């Protein structure tokens, strides 16, 4: 399927069976036309923030990618999964971005396993001059704050280290309020910017969102370039805090290969993203301080145990949180890892899980796919070693030494196995 993305409706083609016009940074009045990003511009004006133009181009790219990822259903692909996506995007500097197509397509291929064909057009979005005085945040770092437990630990640790990051969120139903609660409570209150891509399109589309971290990272880059430190020529750390076990996300079974196991913070993906930032001359350095830690280790070693005990059960981990009416299912892989982390931490897990008793042998509990797959993974690791699951997922020029990553996967499986034993799951 082809998408043409532009902030100028006059540059967009008519909707037809194989082409979807996407209006960027404006709300489309035509219900048949997709749109994304209008609320972001409004929020930037409201906050009096002016990002670097190259960062705005990067955001246009991310908005286009996330819209394509959501709008094109995998079920209609020849193999029921891999999509062929033709994407044309208007940017302010098409010559530069067209020189980066090979690296960009390789990064997206790794992230989503789809086949991307991307090209860039002129007349991209430019932020109009502000009528009010521009605000240049004094913060010297940026951190993503999702509402999840890992980003919560990350911000708690940063503040405990006397760092006060500019925290950035993607506002989604069920998480927006807790994001605000975390930001206003930690360290007496942190500067917080909540954005939403508001990608809209006709039809059901696809909800797997394998490319979702593109937009989260683009928000972080955007915010980093608004800071006074960046304006003064500094390089801004962008903290993307997630435990190494879920970042590597080794397939639990041979059936969970490719993008069936998400790669939103995989070290290879983050390295490729950093390569794109460097090529674009954007002085933002992506850091995941926990790439060699399990979630349980993050909980146990957090430098602010008081606030973590206060907020951990409020955080969101479930991959089906909205599907279950803003309730943790208790049985998906992220829920299992969360429950294992509480178990290792030794603190009572006050999270309410819809499917709490995983020792119960039925299709909702011990026989559920992810629970059975995890149990099978333990047996595989014990019999054949962790490389039987990791395979070639850590073989890359971007990973100089895969040893520490392999070790965090081993410890992550050990945490899960300990949880299963405590729950009586066989």
Q: Approximately how much beta-strand content do the residues carry?
A: 5-15%
The proportion of residues forming helix, as a percent range, comes to: 40-55%
Mean pLDDT: 92
Order of helices and strands: EEEHHEHHEEHEHEHHEHHEHHHHHH
Describe this structure in words.
With 426 residues, the chain is an alpha/beta fold. The chain has a domain at 2-121. It is 40% helix and 11% strand. The protein has helices at residues 38-47, 53-71, 94-98, 101-112, 149-160, 176-185, 212-224, 228-231, 244-248, 267-279, 295-301, 305-311, 333-345, 369-384, 387-390, 403-423, and strands spanning 2-6, 19-24, 34-36, 84-90, 115-121, 142-144, 166-170, 192-195, 236-239, 284-287. It has a five-stranded parallel sheet with strand order 3-2-1-4-5. Strands 8-7-6-9-10 form a five-stranded parallel sheet, with helices on both faces. Mean pLDDT is 92; it is low at 256-260.
Quick structural overview:
This protein has 16 helices and ten strands.
Q: Mind sketching the topology for me?
A:
Elements: E1 2-6, E2 19-24, E3 34-36, H1 38-47, H2 53-71, E4 84-90, H3 94-98, H4 101-112, E5 115-121, E6 142-144, H5 149-160, E7 166-170, H6 176-185, E8 192-195, H7 212-224, H8 228-231, E9 236-239, H9 244-248, H10 267-279, E10 284-287, H11 295-301, H12 305-311, H13 333-345, H14 369-384, H15 387-390, H16 403-423
Parallel strand pairs: 1-2, 1-4, 2-3, 4-5, 6-7, 6-9, 7-8, 9-10
Helix pairs in contact: 2-7, 4-10, 11-13, 13-16, 14-16
């Amino acid at each position: 399927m082809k998408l043409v993305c532009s902030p100028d409706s006059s540059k967009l083609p008519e909707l037809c069976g194989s082409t979807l016009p996407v209006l960027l940074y404006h709300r489309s009045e035509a219900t048949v036309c997709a749109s994304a990003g209008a609320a972001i511009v409004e929020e930037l004006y409201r906050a009096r923030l002016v990002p670097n133009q190259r960062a705005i181009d990067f955001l246009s790219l991310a908005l286009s990618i996330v819209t394509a990822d959501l709008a094109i259903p995998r079920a209609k692909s020849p193999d029921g999964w891999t999509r062929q996506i033709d994407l044309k995007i208007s940017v302010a500097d098409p010559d530069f971005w067209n020189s980066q197509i090979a690296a960009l397509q390789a990064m997206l291929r790794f992230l989503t396993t789809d086949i991307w064909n991307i090209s860039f057009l002129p007349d991209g979005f430019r932020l109009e001059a502000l009528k009010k005085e521009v605000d240049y945040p004094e913060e010297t770092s940026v951190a993503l704050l999702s509402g999840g437990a890992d980003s919560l630990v990350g911000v708690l640790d940063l503040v405990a280290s006397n760092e006060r990051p500019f925290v950035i969120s993607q506002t989604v139903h069920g998480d927006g309020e807790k994001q605000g609660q975390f930001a206003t409570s930690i360290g007496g209150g942190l500067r917080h910017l909540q954005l939403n891509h508001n990608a809209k399109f006709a039809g059901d589309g696809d909800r797997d969102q394998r490319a979702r971290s593109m937009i989260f990272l683009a928000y972080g880059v955007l915010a980093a370039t608004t800071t006074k430190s960046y304006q003064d020529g500094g390089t801004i750390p962008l903290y993307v805090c997630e435990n190494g076990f879920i970042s590597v996300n080794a397939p639990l079974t041979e059936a969970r290969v490719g993008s069936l196991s998400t790669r939103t913070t995989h070290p290879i993906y983050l390295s490729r993203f950093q390569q794109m930032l460097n090529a674009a001359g954007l002085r933002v350095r992506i850091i995941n301080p926990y790439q060699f830690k399990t979630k349980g280790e993050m909980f146990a070693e957090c430098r602010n145990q008081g606030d973590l005990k206060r907020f951990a059960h409020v955080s969101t981990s479930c991959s089906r949180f909205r599907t279950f009416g803003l309730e943790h299912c208790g049985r998906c892989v992220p829920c299992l890892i969360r429950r294992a982390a509480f178990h290792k931490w030794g603190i009572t897990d006050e999270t309410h899980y819809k499917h709490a008793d995983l020792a119960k042998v039925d299709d909702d509990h011990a026989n559920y796919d992810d629970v059975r797959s995890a149990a099978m993974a333990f047996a595989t690791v014990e019999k054949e070693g962790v490389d039987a699951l990791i395979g070639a997922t850590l073989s890359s020029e971007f990973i100089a030494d895969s040893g520490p990553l392999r070790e965090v996967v081993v410890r992550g499986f050990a945490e899960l196995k300990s949880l299963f034993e405590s729950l009586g799951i066989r």
